Amino acid sequence: MTLKKALVALLVGLSALVFGGSALAEPTTKDPVPVTGVWCDGDTYKCTAALEFGDGRWFADWNVDVYHGRAETRDMVPVTRLRCDGDTYTCTANLRFGDGRWVARWSVDVYHDRAAVERDPVPVTGMWCDGDTYTCTAALDFGDGGWVADWHAEVFHT
């Protein structure tokens, strides 16, 4: 009877590790920081977000497609808040859709810029995401106003 109880306890313990392992391996809730500005660069094909963190010289950037064409925003929803997380290397955009619990998330590079480098990218004037195409689009303040940047994102309900 003691051996049987020991085997059952061992199996229960192992099953808890197997079935509970994925829940235990999930990242803990991080503290993303607000974004103070976003700009995109058609030469490097990157958008960069300035992060409200530390000495103010922290940034997140991600690869984008930059092209001339009007942003067709009729099927997209506006971004209401943008935050980035240096622990998970992601930016998350809250979307104005449905019950307000829809978000778009994408991978970014997060870094500290030690030197105040003069940048030549252009400001973003608006940002939208589309849950059907899993794409976010930024309107760029450049030339005739017909320049946009877009990138792929996960879109999901929280």
Task: Outline the structure in words.
With 158 residues, this protein is an alpha+beta fold. It has one domain (33-157). The protein contains 1 helix and 12 strands; from the N terminus they run H-E-E-E-E-E-E-E-E-E-E-E-E. The protein has one helix spanning 2-25; strands spanning 33-41, 46-51, 58-63, 65-68, 77-85, 90-95, 102-107, 109-112, 122-130, 135-140, 147-152, 154-157. Strands 1, 2, 3, 4, 5, 6, 7, 8, 9, 10, 11 and 12 form a 12-stranded antiparallel sheet that branches. A hairpin with a 4-residue loop joins strand 5 and strand 6. It is globular and about 40 Å long. The chain starts with a helix and ends with a strand.
Question: How helix-rich are the residues, as a percent range?
Answer: 10-25%
Please, how many helices?
A: 1
Arithmetic mean of pLDDT: 80
Number of strands: 12
Order of helices and strands: HEEEEEEEEEEEE
| Helix-strand category | alpha+beta
Radius of gyration: 21 Å
Which characteristics define this entry?
15% helix, alpha+beta, 1 helix, disordered N terminus, 158 residues, globular
How are the SSEs ordered, and which strands pair?
Blueprint lengths: L1 H24 L7 E9 L4 E6 L6 E6 L1 E4 L8 E9 L4 E6 L6 E6 L1 E4 L9 E9 L4 E6 L6 E6 L1 E4 L1
Antiparallel strand pairs: 1-2, 1-5, 1-9, 2-3, 3-8, 4-11, 5-6, 5-9, 6-7, 7-12, 9-10, 10-11
